[in-house]
Amino acid sequence: MAEDTKKQKKKRPTAEKRLLQTEKKKLINKAFKSKVRTAVRQFDESLEAGNKEEIAKVLNEVYSLMDKGVKRGIYKVGKASRVKSRFTAKAHKVA
């Protein structure tokens, strides 16, 4: 009788749990990549405007986001390095 009153936790098979975790992580990664694309768009807009202070600010944000993406495993080191290098070159052309 004591067992009937206690709520028993329903166990999930491992595969189902992994699917749930994968879906959660996919949504988090998707939001992060969206944030990176927004920063890249802001960088391009600031390049067109030619505002050096804004370019430097947004460039630092892109650097930070790319490094965080590598740390989280969303981006590979080579991609982050390539993006940062290209954006730095673009920023120096304007300066």
Query: Helical region count?
Result: 4
- How do the helices and strands follow one another from N- to C-terminus? HHHH
Mean pLDDT: 90
Which consecutive residue ranges, at least 5 long each, have pLDDT under 50?
none
Envelope shape? elongated
Number of strands: 0
The percentage helix is over 70%
What class, by secondary structure content?
mainly alpha
Terminal residue distance: 78 Å
Radius of gyration from CA coordinates = 22 Å
The proportion of residues in beta strands is under 5%
Largest sheet: none
Task: Provide a descriptive summary of the structure in words.
The chain is mainly α and 95 residues long. The protein is 83% helix and 0% strand. The protein has four helices and no strands. The longest helix is centred in the first third of the chain and has 36 residues, at 14-49. The radius of gyration is 22 Å and the shape is elongated. It starts with a helix and ends with a helix. The model has no long low-confidence stretch (mean pLDDT 90).
